[in-house]
Automatic annotation (TrEMBL), chains A, B:
Protein name in UniProt: Antibiotic biosynthesis monooxygenase
Domain ABM: 2-90
Species of origin: Rhodospirillum rubrum (strain ATCC 11170 / ATH 1.1.1 / DSM 467 / LMG 4362 / NCIMB 8255 / S1)
Any one GO MF annotation of this record: monooxygenase activity
Superkingdom of source: Bacteria
Modification Cysteine sulfenic acid (-SOH) occurs at: 35, 66
Length: 96, 96
């Protein structure tokens, strides 16, 4: 299982613009057959700091996601409104 | 629901020291009645970069967690091995 945290830092004045784009991205990504979890959160202290917490079977599934029509169309539209570069961390679970 | 991402940056030489401390912290935290989710991950690119993804009903539940015997005993022991300060982000879900 591959866990992903992807963080975006959106300009405050663009939050209303990106929200519907995010919602479409979440809705369509959750329909992907290999998507295990794909949830979007916002920092309580920073309304432009959006955090995806994602779960995929493996890297190949994530790569398929990143090549989908909705991802390749929506992410550039969202990234146009960033105030700083986003970050992505790929993680493994620490066994109990 | 309150979602939390807590990140630690541990010195490479101390990873074997902190792992059992992390495991005890995860085990005991998951037994807390108000704990909805408490999972530990490690960055594929940085074996000292540990990431907790947590879920609590609300801030009060998180505060109770931070006052528990296991938290107050184990977290300082872990933090003694940090190479830089950890970060904590409290988040709300973005409604679909």
């Amino acid at each position: 299982m591959l866990k992903v945290i992807a963080q975006d830092f959106i300009k405050p004045e663009a939050i209303d613009i990106v929200l519907p784009l995010y919602r479409e991205l979440v809705e369509k990504t959750r329909q992907e057959p290999l998507c295990l979890a794909y949830d979007l959160f916002v920092d309580q202290k920073d309304p432009g700091h959006f955090v995806f917490i994602e779960e995929w079977p493996d890297r190949a599934a994530l790569d398929i996601h990143c090549a989908t029509e909705h991802f390749t169309r929506l992410v550039p539209l969202i990234n146009a409104h960033q105030r700083q570069d986003g970050t992505v961390v790929l993680m493994d679970a620490v066994p109990a």
